[in-house]
Write the structure tokens for this entry.
Amino acid sequence: MPFRPNSDGRRQTREDFIHPLLPEGTLRLPDGQRAAVLPGIFLPQLAADLFAPLGDHTRHALYKFGYEWALQDMVRISRQVADEFGGGADLDLWQMDAKFVLDRWWQPLHATGWGALTLDLSSLSRSFAFFELHHSAVAAHSPGATQPTCHLYAGLFAGALSFFERVERHAIEFQCAALGAPTCRFAVGPGPQMDEVESWRQQQVAPDDIRRRLA
């Protein structure tokens, strides 16, 4: 049975993860890495600026940014939980409960304005997972979009699950708040199946039907 540590249930805030060091004029994460606070418009503006040199490859570039970011985050989380729970080098992240690990990974992102995340891992034994994002920082600043916009998030979710499962996973956003939906929804799983999800989305299959077809 996977190891699942107890939680104290306390809602964590930005101050738990970002520490201002006034003498040097910087913001630091608990492990000493520098952090920055950016306006919400930064992400859609980044996508717009990338489009000039990259064109249609912009979506893939943002996805890869998120994917690599998540991998680096998960390396850090792996070290933290091993130290906190006394396992040292003998406690692997993969021995732990998947929901605990992914919730732990997302806590600082939630606290710092990246939105709330609901996980459905009931199909993880079949290599699928569903991520539902509330208050996407990208979708909130993308009025008038005609396609899903949260490519960076899709990369984040694919990278995190790939690290945990130790095999490459892909992610597709099949419902986006930028298109008027209440939340953004993502499927994460093997590449060929995610290609099918994207095909269904382009055929305008309803999000609930896409989910049922996979689950």
Observations:
- The chain has a mean pLDDT of 85.
